[in-house]
Structures are given as structure tokens and as C-alpha cells.
Amino acid sequence: MNKLTKIFSYLKGYWKYGVLNIVFNMLSVVFSLFSLTMLAPFLNLLFLKNDNEYHEQLAKGVPEVKMSVQSLIDNFNYYLTNMVVTQGKMQALILICIIVVTVIFLKNIFRYAALYYISPIRNGVVKDLRNAIYSKVLRLPLSYYNEEKKGDILSRMTNDVMDIEWSVMQSLEMFFRDPLNIIAFLGTLIFLSPQLTLLVLILLPVTGLIIGKVGKSLKRTSFKGKESMGVLLSLMEETLSGLRIITAFNGQEKAEEKFYAENERYNVLSIRAYRKADLASPISEFLGVAVLVIIMYFGGQLVLGEKASLTGAVFITYIAIFSQLIPPVKSVTVAYYNIMKGLASGERINKILQADLSIIENPNPSPLDGFKYKIEYKNVTFSYSNGVEVLSGINLAIKKGKTIALVGQSGAGKSTLADLLPRFYDCTAGAILIDGLPIKDIGLKNLRQQMGIVTQESILFNDTVFGNIAFGMENATEEAVIRAAKVANAHDFIMQMEQGYQTNIGDRGGKLSGGQRQRLSIARAVLKNPPILILDEATSALDIESERLVQDALNKLLENRTSLVIAHRLSTIQHADEIIVMHQGKIAERGKHAELHAANGVYRKLCDMQSFS
Length: 613
Prior knowledge:
Blueprint: H1 5-8, H2 15-37, H3 39-48, H4 51-59, H5 69-87, H6 89-139, H7 142-146, H8 150-192, H9 194-241, H10 243-248, H11 252-278, H12 280-304, H13 312-353, E1 374-383, E2 389-399, E3 403-408, H14 414-419, E4 429-434, E5 437-438, H15 444-449, E6 451-454, H16 465-469, H17 478-487, H18 491-495, H19 514-528, E7 532-536, H20 544-558, E8 562-566, E9 578-583, E10 586-591, H21 593-599, H22 602-612
Parallel strand pairs: 3-8, 3-9, 6-7, 7-8
Antiparallel strand pairs: 1-2, 1-4, 4-5, 9-10
């Protein structure tokens, strides 16, 4: 259970509701118990006393009033006996009925009040849990997602959180209420018959051990089911992303075969989990009845034996109260099974919540008031978590206003070198400085405010054109957005859309062409107006006409900015201030286009290959 501590820690903001729930549950239990204790005087009234016995009891006088349960019982019995003698049994019966109805009414009023105040806890904790997961997902380093499947992460954020909501949070009320019921009922049973209650306390732990054994098995099965659902969602995500390729290569049957096999595995695990969970109710009910029968047998001996220590009325009351002990015990059992099922989800969620934030922000960051001089890479080395070295001994200076191009074969380390600057990753050794300040000493938000990024794949959201261009910018005006769109050569096609800048562009900008999506990305960067710009093969996936429009927009964007350009098409970076040629994680060559081309080295070979192609 300690693995759910992180989840239950979200209760701290809802303690006032928890206290009110406990108070009203206690009142509900008290009135419920009081209604059951009315059974003994009712039975006595009907069957067990004649008129002489009533007069004999009155002759003993009024019981002494004390602050004890027994004193309350004695005084109530005396009052009831007096009523029987003076007003008759029918009047006493009417009084008992009125008391029972009143007590049951109050019990249910307090029961509803308890449920009323548990609702904000159940739903609020799940809301906070979703917020915590989403916030953690936004702040985890990109390297975390290189090792995790997107579908599995989505499964944890949806199915696993829902399991916590249904399995754990709905059981929360049982943990507030039922232990109070059990304690109150057990206390009353001890008061009525310590001998029988000792037997109950011996038998109940035995049933708990049996239930616990099945519960552990359920947890293991449920955990496997959650993992299988994560795989299913990953397959779905891959299918939707790669549907064009699957169709083009007639891979439908292969994809179906893989999905069907995993879906069948999930089906088998789910059936097994449901069957084990469904054991909770019948097992607890059977064990409860078995204990009840044993209590009836031994209790009957105490009533019918030669040395009877219980009256029939008290014993029947004992059985009635014990029968009311079974439902809360059963509820705790069901809650335990639900917790075991939810625990598997809790462990998977905690893998996200407790994941290390490898990009650690300095608690006392140095302020970076704009970019003034230069960016420096000093002996930078970077390796992924698997130990594979991607960059080695990189030394590079980028002066303000200069355009530096990174070229090289795929896997040479170009994108990694650029990703280190906004701290998507942290270098393994060496340091990166902006105006002499190590970027690790600068606040992440402050650092990234200085940068704009346009990637090869246009990252757009299911929002309006205006919302996508103004993304991340507070209080962006329509005039500013339009100016940015004009610089990016996007204004004309936007105005041809049905609702202009208020047109929704669909999931990932699916309603737009590749060139249009890229120009919106450029407009977003233009609106941010950053002093430092990173272009990661921004035109490599476009056709000739779209590339011309996008390249023209990029040229406008690059004016008077410090730029780090990752180029696939070398023709787009011939006028860069310096070209850095990357090879196997190191700088192989550097210089201007004409110098590098004349040197007949790695850059010349890259140019020749593109010319030949």
C-alpha cells in the first residue's frame, strides 16, 4: 500500500472534507447502532415479560444516572417499563416504532451528508493527479520519450488514471466509513458478550488471510493487463501515424495480425482479472455466513445451556448487530480488491510522477537580459543514456548577427548540437555559454525566451490559424499576427480560407499543405521575434515551389538575427557566415562555402553527391 502514498498525498488539500465525512459517518453509525439496540426491548415487549415482571422491575426504583452505556440502557428500560404499566403495551410499542423511524431518518440524513462531503475528495484528487501527470509530462526531458512508447504514456494518462478514479477513489469512502462501523459494532458486541466476540476476533483474521492471497494474485494480473493496453495504444498510434505507408505496402494483414495477437492477450488478461475481482463478493459473503453459523452455534449454547449467560433477546440482538458487521467487512474486502487492482495503475503512474528531471533548473538563476555578444560551445561532449557518444570535443563560437550552418550526413550530430542550446538535453561534458553565462545557470524560461525554433516537421495544434501563430505569446494582437504572417508569406493563403485567421486547421494542421504548415511555423517564430534562431532542415521536406516561398520567408526571418541552421539542401546555406561540417560527432571542417568546396574534403563530397543526384 505504501506505493500508493504518492497518490494519496493529494488528499492534503481536502482534509476539511475528510473531517466532515468522518464526523457525519460517526453520527450515522451511532444512529444505526441505536436503531439495532431497540430490537431487545421490542422482543421483550412482545414475548419475554409478563405483567408481574414489569411490576417487580418498577419496585427496584429509578436507576442511578451515570455517564455510561449501561446506565442509559437501564434508564431507558425503566422508562419503557413504567409506560407499559401505566399506559399499556400498545403505547410502548408506538413509542418504539417512533424512535426507530426517527433514528433511521437521522441515520440516512447523516449518511447523505457524509457522501456529500466525500465527492469533492474523490473527484478533486483525480483532477489533481491528472494535472500532476500532465505537468510532469511537459517538464520531462526529451530523452525520457526516446525510451518510452507514446501509446504507453497515453495509457497511463487515461486508462490508469481512470482506474485510480474507479478503483481507488471510489473505495476511499469505504475507508472513511466502514472502519468506524466495524469498531462501533465490535465494541457493542464486546459489551453484549465478550465470550462470543473473542471467537469473532479469532475467525475474522483467518478470512482476511484468504482474501489477501487472492488480492495479490489480482494485482499481478492487473499490472500485466495495463502493460498490454499500453502496447495496444502504441500500435494504434503507430497505425494512425503510418497509415499511408501501411496502405501503400499492402501491410494491412500484417498490421491486423500483430494487433489481433496483442488484443487477444489483453482480452485473456482482462477476463482473468475480472474473474479474480468478482471473487471478492462471493468469498467474503460465504466466509461471513460461515462465521455467523459458528457464532449461532456457540451463542445458542450460551442461551440454552445449563449455565445460561445470555437471554434470548440479547442473543438475537447480538446476531442482528453481527449481521450488520458483515456488510462493512465485505465492503472493506471489496475495497481491498479494488485497491489491489488500482495499485497496478498506481505503480505505472508513479513511473511518470517519480521520473528524474535530468534537466535541472538552477534554484538561483543568473538573469540573461537579452542576447548581446556570442554563443560558445566549449569542449562539448554528449552521450545518450545507453552510453553511445554522439558529440565529442565540440568547440564553436557564434557571434551575434551571424548565420552558422551545420551540415553533414545523417547521424553526424547536427540536430543534437542544436538541441543542446535550448537545453532539450544537457551536455555530458564541457559547457555552453551565452554572453559568458553558462546556460545551466540561466533560468529555463529566460533561456528559451531568447530562441525561436523552426523544425523540419511543422508542429501545429488543433486550433485556429491565429491560435497557432500566437502560441506561447501572451496578449498577441491581431495586427501583430497579421504582420508576422505577411513576413512568412502566409497572409495570402490564410485570407483565402473560409474564416481567415479564425479557421481551425485540424489535427496537426491536417487541412493545410506542407508548405502552408511550414509558413505558419515561421510566422510563429517571427511573432516571437527572438534574437537567436534555430532552423532544423526547415525546407527539406518541401516541393520546389513551396521551398521557394518558405526560403524567402526564412531569409526575411534571418535578417539581423543570430542563426544556427541545420541544412539538408546545401544550396540553401551557401551564403552562411560559416559552415560547420559534422562527421561522426566531431567538427571535420569549417569555413565559407567557396573555401570548403575548394578544399576538396567532406563538404566537397556532400556537394558532389547532391549535384549528381
